[in-house]
Design a protein that fits this description.
two-stranded antiparallel ribbon, 10% strand, mainly alpha
Length: 278
């Protein structure tokens, strides 16, 4: 068969593009497969009849909302296949946003992909840091994405302990790859800050200061249990010592009495022994 030069060039171009697509897809699959494995671990591969966000059914890999572009094929796909399609869909959306996604480190591709998968968007501070290649700041900004609608509280947004754990997990996955300090644990407290209801605290080993978010949302019903009736952890005393059983270190009476807790008694006050006639 003889091909005219134009058709031959088109054929070569198509073959070259196809090969490049295959190579690119092979590279992409490395981070996509990792993301799928993380989803399988955090969300499970089977669906549930009582999801946190809506109280209704969800499919495996944490699929609660199916993009309209995939609705026509969703029923014909397995949960893993559908999750993969959603990741691909979000990948293309990130590119369309103008994010230089393909040149991000693999760890940040997974982190950004997970936020899109979980929320359907990237919040402004996170996106700004990602565009600037300021990955430590972007990761920090991902840590307060911890709320979901609560069907038992008029569908208001509430803080979910499971999302706090997920954000910590995804942070640590990226931190390991980028050589950053890992989060050692997290706590969720009733806030003592004016205008806030919940404090989410991420702790680090060593001398690194914790990351604290004062959030204007209460706790999600799904995060309330017999162990935590209000969903919160119990704050430890500011000073850990036997003195806490007597009074707080910042108590005004403590400052008046002094370290040995001996009361300051005015001159001339009768002693207990004198009152007894001794």
């Amino acid at each position: 068969m003889v091909l005219v030069p134009q058709l031959l060039e088109m054929y070569k171009l198509k073959e070259w593009s196809s090969n490049m697509d295959l190579l690119g897809e092979k590279v992409d699959n490395s981070w996509k497969d990792k993301h799928l494995n993380l989803l399988a671990g955090s969300e499970g591969v089977k669906g549930t009849d009582d999801s946190v966000e809506s109280g209704g059914k969800t499919r495996g890999y944490g699929i609660t909302v199916i993009p309209k572009a995939l609705e026509s094929v969703a029923d014909s796909l397995s949960d893993k296949e559908l999750a993969t399609r959603i990741i691909d869909y979000n990948h293309n959306r990130l590119r369309a946003m103008g994010i230089d996604f393909d040149n991000l480190p693999e760890a940040m591709k997974i982190n950004a992909s997970d936020l899109m998968y979980n929320t359907g968007t990237l919040f402004n501070n996170y996106r700004t840091a990602l565009d600037a290649k300021d990955f430590p700041t972007a990761l920090r900004e991902s840590l307060d994405v911890v709320s979901a609608t609560d069907p038992d509280q008029d569908m208001d947004l509430k803080v979910v302990r499971g999302l706090v754990n997920r954000r910590m997990q995804m942070y640590n996955e990226a931190a390991d790859a980028l050589g950053l300090s890992r989060i050692s644990d997290n706590k969720v407290f009733k806030s003592q800050t004016e205008g806030a209801l919940t404090d989410v605290v991420y702790n680090f080993d060593g001398d690194k200061e914790p990351i604290i978010f004062n959030i204007d949302k209460g706790m999600h019903t799904k995060s309330i249990s017999d162990e935590r009736p209000e969903g919160y952890d119990i704050r430890k005393p500011l000073v850990s010592s036997p003195l806490n059983d007597i009074m707080e270190m910042n108590d005004p009476d403590y400052e008046e009495y002094g370290y040995d807790l001996t009361p300051i008694v005015p001159d001339g006050t009768p002693s207990y022994m004198n009152l007894l006639g001794e």
